[in-house]
Write a structure and sequence with these properties.
The chain has about 80 residues and is mostly helical. It contains five helices and no strands. The longest helix is centred in the first third of the chain and has 18 residues, at about 5-20.
Amino acid sequence: MTEQEMYENFARNLATLRKSKELSQRTLARLLNLSRYSMISYENCRAAPSAYALYQISVYFQIPMEKLLTSTILSGGE
């Protein structure tokens, strides 16, 4: 898997997980102490998350960081 594929996977997974909890990008950003612009950039694959952001997202959704990057997560974190 290439680095670009990981970021694309992450972008899809983040959007899926956020929508499964019915959260706006703004609300999720506030909950995680991240900027709304960062959330938008991550979901649109325009920016890669920092290690801190990836960790925060992983903890919030209770999904290992590796899974966020390398697997396809179905709605609800399954």
